[in-house]
Design goal:
63% helix; Beta-Lactamase; alpha+beta; 13 helices; 5-stranded mixed β-sheet; 526 residues
Length: 526
C-alpha cells in the first residue's frame, strides 16, 4: 500500500487525529524540551564541576601562596597552621603539602576521609602547585588538592531539580494543550462526525447544531447547508423515481404484450418451418415413389401385352415354345413388379415414419444411421437441384431412446443451412455427416461442409433468434435458433460450431443416448 494512501486510511479511523496531534505535540514540545533540558543540565554540570571548582581551588591556592610566606621566611610551621586550619574547613580541600626550597616537607594537611589513588582511592581532584617567593627569592611551594566529589553531588542535585522543573513544565503544557484541543477541536470534530454519520445513513431531517464562531462553526454551517440541499435533492429524486417507476410499469406492460406477440410470431414461424419440412417430405415421397411405381407400371403393361398375345395364340393355335416364352416373361415380370412394389412399400413406410416423427415428436427407440438416411432421402429433391453432395460416414451401430423428429429437424436444418449459405459463389460443394460415441452414454454428431466459412462477427450471433444474412431473400433467422433450442432443450445436449474462412464450417452436436423427459413444444418454441 502506498504511503500516502496508508496515511489517509489511518486518518480516516476514529482516534487517528488524536494520535497525530499527540505525535505532533511530542515532536514539537516534548522533544525540544528534553533536548534543551539535556543541554542545560550538561552545561550546568560542566560549569559546576569544572569552572566553579577551578575558580574556588585557585582562590584557595592563591590564599595559601600568600599566607605561607611569613611561615617559610621565619622557618616556623606554627605560623602557617592557623591558615591551613582555616582553609581545611572546606571539606573539598583534601590535601595541602608545603615544601621548602629544597623540597623538604615543611607543613602538611590531609583530610581524614581522603584516600590516595595509590591506596585504592579516587583522585578525582584538582591539583594546584604554587611557588612561594619573597623579594624574588623562592622560599618553597605549596601543593593543593581540591576534591570534585562535592561538585559532582551539587551537579546531581541541580540536575534533578532541572529534570523536575522540565517534567512539571511538560505536564502543565501538555495538560493545557489537551484541555484546549479537547474543547476547541476534538469535541466539535466529534459532533461534526456524528452529524456526518447521520447524513451518510440517510438521516436528513436532524439539523446540524451550530458551533462556536471559528472554522468548525463555519464547517457546521456548510454541513447544515449540505444537509438541506441533500434533503431537497432526495425529495426531488424520490419524485422522479416514482414518476419513472410509473412510466416503467407502463413500458413493462407494453413490453410484455410485445413479447407475447413475438412469441406467437415465433411459434407461427416454427410451424411454417415444420410445414416447409413436410412439403419437402411430400416432394421426396412423390419423387422417390415415381421410379418404382413407374417401373412396376411398365412391367405390368408388358405383361398385359404378353397376355393378349397369348390369348390370340390360343385362338389361332399355340405352340409349346410360345407358351414357354410367355411363362418366362410372366415369371420375370412378376418378380420385377414384386421388387418395385416392395421398394415402394419400404419408401412409403420410411416416409410415413419420418412424417410422423416430424409432426408428432414422439419418443421412441431408433437407429441413428437409419434416421440420417431417411432425412437425406426426404431432402433428395432439393439436393438433386444443386451441384452439392451429401456424404454419410457410417460408424458403429448407435441406437437411441430419444426424439427422432426433433433430431431429424436439427440435421435437416443444418444441411439446408449449408446448402443456402456455405457454398455461395462456388460451383461444387460437399456436406459430410458423421457420428461417433463419446464415452458409453453419449453420441457426437458432426455436420461439416467445405464452403466459404463464417466470419468471427457472425459466428458469435449464429444462434441468436431472427439473425440472418439473407434478410429479404427468404431467410427468417430462426433455423439455427430452433436447432440450438432443440439440442439444448429436448435432446438435453450441447452444440458448438467452428469455422475457418474459405475452408468450411463444422457443427458438433453431443446428445445422450437416453433423452430426458421434457415439454417438447415449449422447448422448441422457446
Amino acid at each position: 500500500m502506498p504511503i500516502g494512501r496508508k496515511t489517509l486510511t489511518q486518518l480516516a479511523k476514529p482516534g487517528s487525529l488524536r494520535r497525530f496531534v499527540a505525535c505532533a505535540a511530542f515532536l514539537s514540545i516534548v522533544v525540544p524540551a528534553v533536548v534543551c533540558g539535556v543541554i542545560v543540565i550538561q552545561q550546568n554540570r560542566i560549569k559546576t564541576i569544572t569552572q566553579d571548582s577551578i575558580i574556588t581551588a585557585n582562590k584557595y591556592a592563591d590564599l595559601l601562596q600568600g599566607g605561607l610566606k611569613v611561615a617559610l621566611w621565619n622557618i616556623s610551621p606554627e605560623l602557617g597552621k592557623p591558615l591551613i586550619e582555616s582553609v581545611s574547613i572546606d571539606r573539598s580541600i583534601v590535601l595541602i603539602d608545603v615544601r621548602d626550597e629544597i623540597g623538604t616537607s615543611f607543613l602538611s594537611y590531609q583530610n581524614s576521609d581522603y584516600v590516595p589513588k595509590n591506596n585504592g582511592g579516587n583522585d578525582d581532584n584538582i591539583v594546584l602547585i604554587r611557588k612561594i617567593t619573597y623579594q624574588d627569592q623562592i622560599l618553597g611551594e605549596v601543593e593543593t588538592h581540591y576534591s570534585l566529589q562535592a561538585a559532582h553531588e551539587s551537579a546531581r542535585r541541580e540536575s534533578k531539580s532541572l529534570i523536575i522543573i522540565i517534567v512539571v513544565q511538560l505536564v502543565i503544557s501538555l495538560s493545557v494543550l489537551s484541555i484546549v484541543l479537547n474543547k476547541r477541536v476534538f469535541k466539535p470534530l466529534g459532533e461534526l462526525r456524528e452529524c456526518a454519520k447521520r447524513i451518510a445513513n440517510g438521516d436528513l431531517k436532524t439539523e446540524v447544531p451550530p458551533l462556536q464562531r471559528d472554522e468548525f462553526g463555519e464547517l457546521s454551517q456548510q454541513l447544515e447547508i449540505m444537509r438541506s440541499s441533500l434533503g431537497s435533492h432526495v425529495n426531488h429524486l424520490e419524485k422522479r423515481v416514482a414518476d419513472r417507476t410509473s412510466e416503467l410499469s407502463v413500458l413493462n406492460l407494453d413490453l410484455m404484450d410485445a413479447m407475447e406477440q413475438l412469441q406467437k410470431a415465433q411459434a407461427n414461424l416454427v410451424q411454417s418451418e415444420k410445414l416447409a419440412a413436410l412439403g419437402a417430405l411430400v416432394a421426396g415421397v412423390a419423387h422417390e415413389l415415381n421410379t418404382p411405381l413407374g417401373n412396376g407400371l411398365t412391367v405390368a403393361t408388358s405383361l398385359r401385352v404378353s397376355t393378349n398375345d397369348l390369348v390370340s395364340a390360343v385362338e389361332n393355335g399355340m405352340t409349346r415354345s410360345m407358351f414357354d416364352e410367355y411363362l418366362s416373361d410372366m415369371q420375370e415380370g412378376t418378380m420385377l413388379v414384386e421388387k418395385n412394389l416392395e421398394k415402394a412399400s419400404e419408401l412409403v413406410k420410411s416416409f410415413k415414419q419420418t412424417a410422423v416423427d416430424q409432426t408428432s415428436a414422439k419418443r421412441r427407440n431408433f437407429e441413428l444411421l437409419t434416421l440420417i438416411n431417411e432425412i437425406i432421402t426426404t431432402l433428395s429433391p432439393t439436393l438433386k437441384k444443386t451441384p452439392y453432395q451429401v456424404d454419410i460416414q457410417t460408424g458403429e451401430e448407435v441406437r437411441l431412446d430419444s426424439f427422432p423428429g426433433p433430431l431429424g429437424q436439427v440435421i435437416s436444418n443444418l444441411v439446408n443451412n449449408a446448402i443456402i449459405h456455405a457454398f455461395e459463389g462456388k460451383e461444387t460443394g460437399k456436406i459430410c455427416i458423421s457420428y461417433k460415441m463419446v464415452g458409453s452414454d453419449k453420441v457426437k454428431i458432426s455436420v461439416a461442409d467445405n464452403g466459404v466459412g463464417i466470419s468471427d462477427t457472425n459466428l458469435k450471433k449464429i444462434f441468436d433468434p431472427f439473425f440472418t444474412t439473407k434478410l429479404g431473400e427468404g431467410g427468417n433467422g430462426l433455423g439455427m435458433h430452433i436447432v440450438h433450442n432443440i439440442v439444448t432443450g429436448v435432446l438435453n445436449g450441447t452444440i458448438d460450431v467452428e469455422s475457418v474462412a474459405n475452408c468450411g464450417t463444422t457443427f458438433h452436436i453431443e446428445i445422450p443416448l437416453v433423452a430426458p423427459d421434457c415439454e417438447i413444444k415449449q422447448a422448441i418454441a422457446s
